[in-house]
């Protein structure tokens, strides 16, 4: 709509994945390197996770656009399917018509085909997008497929991509055998403030802006604060801001147009949106106002000194070394995005994000752990102390009910006094 107005050759902020527009941030470049490595790992199995809109699908499309001719590909993106449907979907990608086959025949056909292609000097690659939706039974079929081998080596290369739920699924004890097959795991976190500006300029450059600055410098901080560094949200906000500038007849976007876009989208800052608590929580006997109480709190210590603390409401926070994290720990022993904490459905869980130095509880390295009151988690030279505040919330609710009861008693007493006074008259 606004391409001609801004002298662009195509829209710069479309939401549909386009490998041409991929911005190779440091972490996207690392994830891409992991994916590229699968071509020379004979038993390659890579897992890429990231939040909705973090760029996983665009990354995959970029990878696919550069596959060599000797690769035989099956790309599965419909993942709410049964084990039989999963096997059929793979065979369809390989050119078969397997819908009359029984499961045993599906498995045999698939295994034979993979081995035959390998013996012909080809590489067989399976990519599963939206893999967080796969059931445990389908994941077990995937494990069995990953074990297909010739006399010398395993022959099926696999890339799984999905939301963070995929990582939690893979860490379940029942899927330990599958997890042991995974060579590389990587989590795509949000873009930093600096990367957000570079991302926007990159997409505008590809769209035909060249070196022209179509966004004022002071817009980038505002965009990062409201998008949280998530590429899809950045695209949505920038596209809306450019429409506002187009409607006002302006040749570039200022903070004024950006504010108009935020008002139209009804967005608030990502940090507030992430930590916003619902005004009401459901309990057995109805709805009660939680007031300003947090559900839990984490305190960060370095030695005996408390460095900072953070209240937890329902939602997710990221802990790491860089400033784009919700809780920043400035230490060379802490990874850029080291861990995440989820608070939901009455429990809080901490999860390692494939960090270098890991998380430790009572001297034991942990991958994922439900936190209990006063648990102490070691991160490098720092310690996190978890405090569950739900008991305090419950006591406050009880205290509030007690105050209401006392108020009712006073009202009843006042009413009796008035009745007695009226009788005396």
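^ structure tokens above, recovered residues below v
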């Amino acid at each position: 709509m606004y391409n001609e107005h801004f002298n662009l050759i195509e829209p710069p902020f479309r939401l549909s994945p386009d490998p041409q527009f991929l911005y190779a941030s440091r972490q996207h470049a690392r994830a891409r390197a992991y994916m590229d490595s699968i071509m020379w790992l004979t038993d390659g199995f890579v897992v890429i996770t990231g939040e909705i809109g973090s760029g996983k699908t665009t990354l995959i499309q970029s990878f696919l656009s550069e596959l060599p001719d000797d690769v035989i590909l099956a790309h599965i993106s419909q993942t709410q399917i049964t084990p039989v449907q999963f096997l059929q979907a793979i065979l369809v990608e390989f050119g078969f018509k397997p819908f009359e086959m029984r499961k045993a025949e599906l498995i045999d056909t698939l295994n034979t085909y993979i081995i035959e292609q390998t013996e012909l000097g080809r590489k067989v690659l399976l990519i599963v997008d939206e893999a967080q939706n796969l059931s445990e039974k389908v994941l077990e079929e995937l494990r069995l497929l990953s074990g297909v081998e010739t006399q010398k080596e395993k022959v099926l290369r696999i890339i799984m991509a999905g939301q963070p739920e995929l990582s939690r699924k893979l860490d379940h004890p029942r899927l330990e055998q599958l997890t042991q097959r995974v060579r590389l795991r990587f989590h795509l976190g949000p873009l930093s403030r600096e990367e957000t500006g570079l991302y926007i300029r990159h997409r505008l450059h590809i769209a035909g802006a060249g070196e022209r600055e179509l966004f004022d410098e002071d817009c980038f901080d505002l965009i990062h604060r409201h998008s949280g560094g998530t590429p899809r949200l950045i695209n949505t906000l920038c596209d809306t801001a450019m429409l506002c500038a187009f409607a006002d007849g302006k040749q570039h976007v200022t903070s004024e147009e950006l504010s108009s876009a935020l008002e139209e989208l009804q967005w608030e800052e990502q940090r507030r949106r992430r930590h916003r608590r619902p005004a009401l929580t459901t309990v057995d006997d109805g709805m009660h106002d939680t007031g300003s109480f947090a559900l839990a709190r984490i305190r960060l210590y370095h030695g005996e000194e408390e460095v900072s603390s953070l209240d937890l409401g329902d939602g997710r926070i990221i802990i790491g070394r860089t400033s784009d994290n919700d809780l920043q720990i400035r230490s060379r022993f802490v990874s850029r995005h080291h861990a995440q904490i989820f608070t939901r459905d009455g429990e809080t869980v901490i999860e390692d994000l494939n960090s270098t130095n890991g998380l430790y509880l009572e001297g034991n390295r942990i991958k994922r752990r439900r936190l209990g009151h006063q648990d102490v988690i070691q991160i490098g030279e720092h310690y996190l102390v978890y405090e569950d505040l739900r008991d305090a919330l419950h006591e406050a609710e009880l205290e509030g009910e007690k105050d209401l009861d006392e108020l009712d008693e006073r009202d009843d007493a006042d009413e009796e006094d008035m009745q007695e006074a009226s009788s005396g008259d």
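The CA atoms of residues 320 and 328 lie 5 Å apart.
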